[in-house]
């Protein structure tokens, strides 16, 4: 059975983009264009998770979250907030209200939204697609490259101990944390040696 996500925001473009992406990845999406409509659909459809905007007509995201968190029927549901402005005071206030995470328009990628929703709902989406991985080359002699090489026994040239090829750093997004965090390790592009 598909997990239901209630998406509350007055931006048609944002709702459409998130809805389309989540539907492609097997979520059922219910949309609402303001807080009052959202609370009505919350009681009508009983979604598994809620994403709400902050600034909306009729009822803002703060009142939506307050209503969800004060209702015994809904207070255990995961709630995420989508901020168009990314204002620190809004983020701090929502965090104090107990939201499960905050997405910032223009910063948070749709893939991250999907992954964090899947984690919150206990859905293992990782089996269904390959997570983005980024390989970068570390330049020897630049910034802290020498210290990194010495601390982790990577050799002066970041060379593979088996084939002597220059190692690359592989970065994988860490969606369990807010912000742009990655897990990193060194990989040999020739013989695929992985140095954690």
Q: What does this molecule look like?
A:
By secondary structure, this protein is an alpha/beta fold. It folds into 2 domains: 4-127, Rossmann fold (3-Layer(aba) Sandwich), CATH 3.40.50; 134-195, no CATH class. Helices cover 32% and strands 21% of the residues. The protein has 6 helices and 9 strands; from the N terminus they run βαβαβαβαβαβαβββ. It has helices spanning 12-24, 35-45, 61-70, 88-96, 110-121, 145-151, and strands at residues 4-8, 28-32, 49-53, 79-83, 101-104, 134-137, 168-173, 182-187, 194-195. The strands form 2 sheets. The chain has a 5-stranded parallel sheet with strand order 2-1-3-4-5, sandwiched between helices. Helix 1 (12-24) crosses helix 5 (110-121) and helix 2 runs parallel beside helix 3. The chain is elongated and about 65 Å long. The relative contact order is 0.11. The model is unreliable at 126-130 (pLDDT under 50).
Secondary structure elements and pairings:
Elements: E1 4-8, H1 12-24, E2 28-32, H2 35-45, E3 49-53, H3 61-70, E4 79-83, H4 88-96, E5 101-104, H5 110-121, E6 134-137, H6 145-151, E7 168-173, E8 182-187, E9 194-195
Parallel strand pairs: 1-2, 1-3, 3-4, 4-5
Antiparallel strand pairs: 6-7, 7-8, 8-9
Helix pairs in contact: 1-5, 2-3
